[in-house]
Structure to design on (496 residues):
């Protein structure tokens, strides 16, 4: 049997920033052209106001760090192309980073409230420490002049004994964990390790402090950033200061309402939607999976929505599906949110999912998107496929391989010529793209490659997963903390 193999190198996605011009690299674009929202005039952020919650000594270190980030921070790394200096927050974002004691809540040292909370039994400790930070965020959120983001300064002693807690599980949940673990073991160890975007058995076992705190802050409409000494203090075990400043600053600017960059749009206005599922406790059933839509427009906005619940079935494994009615309802929610942000419907909708779309889902999405000119569905999954080339480095990022014009594999990580290195710890594993129907697979692959660049939680150019699916576990975990009786806020700034 003859095997036909086609290998093509896709061009790296172009990014747009404040001034005219296009760039391949986020840091270079921000240094030379400023953030994308400079194009919007009055909508550009001229200030990013920061609040602080935590122990007094750690808040002091945080203030020193953010003051330091106002100015240039030189890079101490050898590969200056990959790790450039940080020009300073104002120079980079054309906005002032503003700190004020009015937006600071220090834990009471005289009463030792944090230490007393940490001395409690595990469950009470988790709840009490969570309440301390949540109360601080609420106090700041109630200010007449609110900050844009609150930094929760979390010391290592909290990380060590309070970062997660074992959940109290029902018999049905224990049964689900056993089934999921067996299926994972049967599916070859390590196959999904680099692609664990959706829920894993471990997610049912533990409750996460970070997700719980973000959910509490969402209730008072306040984006937060977790700050640790790994960010604030230089040490041999931390990243280079300039690298930390870059990553922190991009995340803060986005959470404050800015748009650092967007990918260049070469086609019609498109809404990219990732469909995933997460575990949700309800008052009616012991265990369900709730659907999530992570949506991103070519204009640079992102939002997350929770759809209907699917009762757990031990035979589901990863293969969870919506009914046609549930798919249609979730699609309608996406269109409503898109219209609120853009003033109209997109010309094109692209749906991503790690499990295959079944007939009912396709019928429901088709019905809801009937007035959208172009609707595409693409299954994205990990693969055991590998390519080896002559030389010291693996295939380039953006390499597309088609086998017999049927199987399509995209390397979203790999050798990066602009850095003269491969910035990964393992042999790069491509995604397998399975388009539904007659779809231009080259355009679909180019879209996926572009979506790996839309992670505004970092300035690093090394993301290998499209943003439509990358944060599914995190988003689902925060939504689970919100509970079934309250609608989570859609803006993506609350989840990153």
């Amino acid at each position: 049997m003859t095997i036909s193999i086609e290998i093509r190198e896709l061009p790296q996605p172009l990014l747009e920033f404040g001034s005219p011009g296009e760039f391949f690299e986020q840091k270079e674009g921000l240094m030379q052209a400023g953030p994308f929202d400079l194009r919007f005039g009055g909508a550009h952020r001229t200030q990013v106001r920061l609040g602080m919650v935590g122990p007094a000594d750690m808040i002091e270190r945080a203030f020193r760090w953010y003051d330091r980030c106002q100015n240039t921070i030189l890079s101490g790394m050898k590969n200056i192309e990959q790790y450039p200096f940080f020009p300073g927050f104002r120079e980079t974002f054309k906005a002032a980073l503003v700190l004020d004691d009015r937006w600071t809540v220090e834990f009471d040292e005289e009463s030792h409230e944090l230490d007393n909370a940490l001395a409690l039994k595990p469950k009470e400790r988790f709840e009490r420490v969570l309440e301390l930070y949540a109360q601080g965020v609420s106090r700041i959120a109630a200010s007449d002049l609110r900050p844009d983001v609150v930094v929760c300064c979390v010391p290592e002693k909290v990380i060590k004994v309070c970062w997660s807690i074992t959940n109290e599980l029902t018999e049905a949940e224990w049964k689900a964990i056993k089934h999921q673990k067996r299926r994972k073991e049967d599916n070859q160890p390590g196959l999904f390790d680099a692609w664990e975007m959706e829920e894993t058995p471990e997610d049912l076992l533990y409750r996460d402090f970070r997700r719980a705190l973000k959910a509490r802050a969402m209730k008072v409409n306040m984006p937060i950033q977790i700050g640790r000494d790994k960010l604030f203090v230089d040490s041999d075990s931390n990243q280079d200061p300039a690298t930390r400043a870059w990553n922190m600053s991009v995340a803060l600017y986005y959470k404050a309402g800015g748009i650092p960059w967007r990918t260049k749009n070469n086609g019609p206005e498109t809404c990219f939607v990732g469909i995933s599922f997460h575990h949700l406790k309800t008052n009616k059933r012991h265990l369900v999976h709730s659907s999530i839509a992570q949506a991103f427009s070519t204009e640079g906005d992102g939002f997350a929505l929770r759809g209907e619940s699917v009762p757990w079935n031990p035979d589901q494994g990863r293969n969870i599906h919506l009914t046609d009615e549930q798919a249609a309802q979730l699609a309608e929610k996406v269109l409503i949110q898109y219209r609120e942000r853009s003033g109209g419907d997109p010309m094109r909708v692209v749906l991503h999912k790690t499990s295959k779309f079944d007939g009912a889902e396709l019928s429901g999405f088709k019905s809801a998107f009937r007035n959208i000119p172009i609707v595409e569905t693409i299954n994205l999954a990990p693969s055991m496929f590998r390519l080896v080339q002559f030389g010291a480095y693996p295939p380039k990022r953006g390499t597309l391989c088609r086998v017999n014009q049927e199987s399509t594999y995209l390397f979203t990580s790999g050798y990066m010529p602009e850095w003269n290195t491969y910035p990964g710890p393992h042999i790069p594993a491509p995604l397998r793209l399975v388009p539904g129907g007659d779809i231009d697979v080259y355009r679909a692959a180019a879209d996926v490659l572009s979506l790996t660049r839309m992670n505004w939680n970092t300035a690093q150019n090394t993301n290998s997963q499209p943003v439509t699916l990358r944060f599914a576990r995190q988003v689902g975990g925060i939504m689970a903390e919100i509970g079934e009786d309250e609608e989570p806020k859609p803006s993506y700034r609350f989840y990153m």
User: Anything to note?
Assistant: Confidence is low (pLDDT under 50) at residues 188-194. The chain has 16 helices and 18 strands. The first helix runs from residue 26 to 33.
